[in-house]
Amino acid sequence: MADRVLITTDDLEQAVRVNASLEQAGFDTAMVSSLDDVRQSVRGRQPDAIILSGGLHESTAQRLLAAARDHAVSTLGLVEPTDADPAEIGRELGLTAWLKKPADPAEITATLRRLIERRRLQQRTGILGESPAIQEVLVKIEQMAPVTSTVLIEGESGTGKELVARAIHDLSPRHGKAFIAVNCAALPETLLESELFGHEKGAFTGAAERRLGRFELANGGTIFLDEVGEMAPATQVKLLRVLEDRTFFRVGGTQPIRVDVRVVAASNQSLKERVGLGTFRDDLFYRLNVLSVYLPPLRERRSDIPLLVRTFITELATTHDRKFQGITPDALQILIDADWPGNVRQLRNLVESMVVLAPEGEIRATDIPRDVRERTRTLPMRIAQPREEPGAGSRELEFIFRSLVDLKMQLDDLRRRIDGRPSDRVEVIEVGGSTSRTPDSRLPDPLTPEPEEPVIYKTGMSMSDVEKAAIDAALRETHGNRRKAAENLGIGERTLYRKLKEYAID
Ligand SMILES: Nc1ncnc2c1ncn2[C@@H]1O[C@H](COP(=O)(O)OP(=O)(O)OP(=O)(O)O)[C@@H](O)[C@H]1O
Ligand SMILES: [Mg+2]
Fold first, then answer.
1. Of 96, 191, 439, 444, which is most buried by a Cβ count within 10 Å?
2. In Å, how far are 9, 90, 239, 287, 339 from 96, measured between CA atoms?
3. Is a pLDDT exceeding 50 seen at residue 394?
């Protein structure tokens, strides 16, 4: 079916010209004369794109653009030749693309085709968003997919790093081959090494059989090294070797193994900062950072929130078999204004809980939990601690530990999927005085790179009390996800386990 394009008639002469050339190029076009017509068309038989022929500064155009954004319809604006900076106008108005009048019909056609292709790419990859930041990410994905260079994806937790990694693989010539994800923070050093590179039979007690590592399993495909910043120094050296000459040894092996694997790595902290802190090798950083993608936090691209919310509502209402009408404008506004420390994942989980629980089949302001409504960031305090080096515990024990970690990761994943409930408000404990601090007050703490949250204490608390309360808060905030809680607290997952045992927290 031909791609459908609407053309507004604010500049009738332009509209007629554009309409004729697009028809000739095989588009299914329609000229629309008023805001209502357009909005109806957006809701009814959805166009693939809308061209605004003029009147970009009118309020009708702005409302149309908002409707188009909410329904994931691309927009191309024709900017007046007298306007000084079309790019500035385009960004200000939230156009997907813009051209200066009088635009060449061939250029309009080519731009439209590109926009429509990008929209298809979004449908295929599930990466939603009309903000310039997301559009830029999509352009990068298109450019990066065909080559084999290593990619580093950075962004806060829940911003879509894994989604992007999968998209790069799915759009690459490797898409028919394996995509293997490894979480580098979940395993202690020796286990991670045997996980990545495999081991020979008898390499250590418990290694009854030869086991292929993830690099071998990913041969021909892509390996996704998640939370790569958490990798121990010795493993970093081995990874560097693989990146340099694509060869490695299985643990206990003597034969070099050569693989053809594309490496995509992700980190939710700045790797460069980690290099500065001395916990990440700079040579490895440069090897990983050949191509890079940065995913900005949701609070820096709030214009994407309405589209995300509407899409999640439709999708999750179908999943849970709920008849659902949508969301009221004031409820949507609250979601747009919220801070979203957990980014898109948190937004999605919240929408899911509201779709299941909202009594009226519609999300209203009162259905939104208080902590989101009040826009408070509910992060636990951070206690700076040096990263614990994995101990030299026996290999057998680690072998058992591996199975437990695997199981735990699956459970966490399951829990994350089913537990869409918003976090309880996290209680923050105060350090350095009994007076309450406003969320904005900050204590200087040279050990914590980004001391965003107040670190608070109550008179009479011992250091263990403080630590226990912080762990409690972090677990509540992450819905019991220990990996995330450890990350938020800035300690290793194993350290968290030890402390949970020590403080008898379950
Ligand atoms: N732009 C987006 N459009 C649609 N869904 C998104 C987008 N970004 C993230 N999501 C959804 O949010 C959730 C979290 O995404 P993902 O797992 O890729 O994040 P992440 O950055 O890897 O998080 P973490 O650092 O915690 O591992 C997933 O359900 C994903 O589908
Ligand atoms: Mg991830």
1. 96
2. 19, 7, 40, 34, 25
3. no
